[in-house]
Design brief:
Layout: H1 3-7, H2 13-37, E1 46-47, H3 49-56, H4 60-72, E2 76-79, E3 83-86, H5 94-115, H6 118-136, H7 142-160, H8 166-180, H9 186-193, H10 197-208, H11 212-233, H12 246-249
Helix pairs in contact: 2-4, 5-8, 5-11, 6-7, 9-11, 10-11
Length: 250
């Protein structure tokens, strides 16, 4: 719709149209982003707007705008005369990405612990309990893996939620999304993390008791262990995404 068209609408209707357009564009952005992070849209693959329109049930304009937003976040590349492409996974660059994430996580952690209240502590303990139970139940099916990935991220978001620097939180969210694209390694990571219960309990105890520097040291140690483990598993080829069976999905 053009500006001239909007001028002909009844009062308030132009705002409604703009809101609807933003909602459609946001839905396209969310759907494409989820496909990139889950690697259903394969790293390095060309992203064809017409195909996304058909598969996601969105307009070409919404798909193009969503891809442009994702290019600004570093999940999509804009190629001259070739359109859009999913950013490839870089095995060699994983450590650099993970360390960049840690650089932001440490001030987030310090600020969130310092400003954390009883409600935050309760939410964090609840998120940890749920993520731990989900971790115990992870198997080889995609449904349990998706639950593990989702609750793992939720625990992190609650952990950092009390930080009062919105820019740091936004930067972390974008970097973590990049790390999530390596989730084909997460099946083995889930098994590995089952052996880190004592480490995570010590960390959580330090957080709840506001022992900030102890928590920071433990977070850094766990980060190094997890990153080293993921690096060791990155040489395996990226598997084809598997669809959940009809009976499993209900």
């Amino acid at each position: 719709m053009t500006v001239a068209d909007e001028a002909l609408l009844p009062q308030g209707a132009a705002e409604t149209v703009a809101t609807d357009d933003q909602s459609i564009t946001h839905r396209a952005y969310v759907q494409i982003r989820a496909g990139l992070i889950s690697c259903r849209l394969k790293p390095g693959s060309r992203l064809k707007i017409a195909q996304l329109q058909r598969e996601l049930g969105i307009s070409q304009a919404a798909a193009r705008e969503g891809l442009s937003r994702l290019a600004a976040e570093g999940l999509v590349m804009i190629e001259r005369n070739s359109g859009f492409r999913a950013v490839p996974l870089s095995v060699d660059g994983y450590r650099e990405l993970a360390d960049a994430c840690l650089t932001i996580e440490l001030p987030l952690l310090r600020s969130s612990i310092a400003l954390g209240d009883f409600a935050w502590e309760g939410a964090l303990l609840s998120a940890y309990h749920i993520s731990s139970r989900v971790l115990d139940q992870v198997s080889d099916d995609e449904i349990s893996m998706d639950a593990y990935v989702r609750h793992r991220e939720n625990f992190y978001r609650i952990l950092f939620a009390r930080c009062d620097n919105r820019w740091l939180l936004r930067a972390w969210s974008q970097l973590y999304a990049q790390q999530m694209r390596y989730r084909h390694t997460f099946r083995e990571l889930a098994r590995y993390e089952r052996g880190l219960y004592d480490d995570y309990r010590k960390f959580l105890d330090a957080v709840i008791n506001h022992r900030i520097e102890e928590a920071v040291d433990l977070w850094r140690e766990n980060h190094d262990k997890v990153v080293a483990f993921i690096e060791a598993n990155l040489q395996a080829p990226l598997p084809e995404p598997r669809r959940a069976s009809r009976s499993a999905s209900g």
